[in-house]
Every structure is written in C-alpha cells, then in structure tokens.
Fold this protein.
Amino acid sequence: MKRTVFVFSALIVSLLILFQLSKYAYVSNDISIEIIISVIAIVFLVIGLYINRKSSKNQKHLSIAIDHKKVKQLGISKREYEVLVQISRGLSNKEIADTLFVSESTIKTHVSNLLLKLDAKRRTQAIQKAKDLQILPV
Amino acid sequence: MKRTVFVFSALIVSLLILFQLSKYAYVSNDISIEIIISVIAIVFLVIGLYINRKSSKNQKHLSIAIDHKKVKQLGISKREYEVLVQISRGLSNKEIADTLFVSESTIKTHVSNLLLKLDAKRRTQAIQKAKDLQILPV
DNA sequence: ATCGTTTTGGCACTTTGGTATGAGTCCCAC
DNA sequence: GTGGGACTCATACCAAAGTGCCAAAACGAT
C-alpha cells in the first residue's frame, strides 16, 4: 500500500517535471521535441514495468505464504505441524523421530492424528492436501 | 516469443504515430502540447503494464514448467513418469494400478525403478526430489 | 490447584510399500 | 530376425506405515 502511494507520487512528480521540460523545449523551438517525447515514453515505460514488477512480487509472496489460521482451524497442534513438515521433506517415521528427538511411536501417533485431521489415507495424500490448503509451502 | 514481437511492433508503430502527432501539434502551435505529452505518458504506461503482465504470466508458467529433458536424462520412461505423477497426487499403488489399468505388481516395479532413478528411499522423498528437479509441478 | 490439551510412548496388529528375481510380450532399430 | 528397451506380471520376503487402545507426564489457562 505504501509503495503504491510512493509510485503514484513519483508519477505525479515526473509528470510535472516533464511539463516544465516540454515548455522549455517549446521555447527553444523544434530542435528537441522528438527527444523530449522519447524521454517521456521511456520514463513511463519504466514506470509501468516497475509497477508490474511490484505486483508480480506480491503474487509470488502470496503463493508461498502459509495459512496459519487454517492450521488452527484443522486442530493441528504445533508438534503435529512440525511432523507434517518433516513428512513433506520425504523423511521416514524413524528419521523424523531422530530429528525431533522422540521415539518412533510418538511420530506414528502424530502422523495418525495428522491423517485424521487432514482427511487423508496416506502420508503422500496428506502432503498433497496440506499444499492445497496452503499450510505447506507449495 | 511471438507476443514479444507483437509488443515491440505495437511499440514502434505507436512511436511513429506519436511523432506525427507531435509535428502536427507543433504546426498548430502550443494549444495541445501538454495533451500530447499526457497521451504519450499514458500510452507508454499502459504498454509497460502490458509487458509486465506478460512477464509475470511467463514467470508463473516457468515455475510450473516441467523439465522434460531432465526426465530423459534420468532415464525415466513414459510409463514411469505417469506413475510418478500419480504418486505425487497421493495415490496408493493399488489406486495407481486401477487408474492406469494394470496390476499392482506392475506399479510396484515402476515405483522401484523410479526410486532408483531418483535416488530416493521412499515415495515421499521421490516426490520431493522430483519437484526439486522440476520434473513435477511445484 | 485443577481441568483440558498436548506430547510422549508402548504394544499388538494389519496394511501398504519396497526389493529381488524371473519371465513373457511387444516394438523398434540395425 | 535378433538384440535391446519398455511394459507387463507373479511370487516371496522384509521393511515401513498406519490403527487401536491405553496411559503417564507436561503444560497452560482459569
């Protein structure tokens, strides 16, 4: 939002500058009218591209953002979410147990609960559903 | 590529038109010089935005684009790739067998070969690696 | 301090996944 | 027409994943 304001301010300022320049060009007759117009064209092309870059960056961030609210809505606890992340990295229950310093039984319990909460039959399906729900980076 | 050519053609044409207009404005003195400049500014702003929209669309397509060459490099066959896609959708071997109209044994063979070729220990890891290698939509 | 949730874990059991091996069919290239 | 690759399938076996049930410890809020 703040950036949009900044962009429009810059736009207005450059407009004013260009009006001044165009008057100056008019005074010194026809030597540079094409150059002025070219400059204007380039400047506004760049401005257009700049605005575009901003919006595409926003899109990127949106597609990566994780919906923490949805995690809570699904009743997925903090620890369960950690397990979910490790599952999506392709780790086995034993490996997850080792990285989280708990027993494999515990991981199995967490996984079982995750499958229930995500309405999935397998861990691979859980990964897919979690990404659809934007609770895992796509 | 074709669209880029189109955009640049439009850009050059509009430039020529604007030069003509600017000369006309010069002949009819200073009544419309600001208007001409405004028009130029708006036109090129729009062109910039248009190019931006295109490039952001391209970015989207790029992030989704699949590296078919890499699939071949890894020696993954057509059928194996089909199985890989179904794995990433979260299907079980039996379900994949049903959707591809073959036996579960066949799918097991394909999966085993896939794990070898992707250097993965589990199907979840295969999904992860395949996405890293851009042979599956991220 | 007590209640509810989370986290942890064990055990027995079933299901699914993955390996190894071997083999038959099909098709394409040389 | 022969060899090689891709696709198919089976069997046997082991590993991993997942279920059900239970229960204790830890934690957080009122």
User: Anything to note?
Assistant: Chain A has seven helices and no strands.
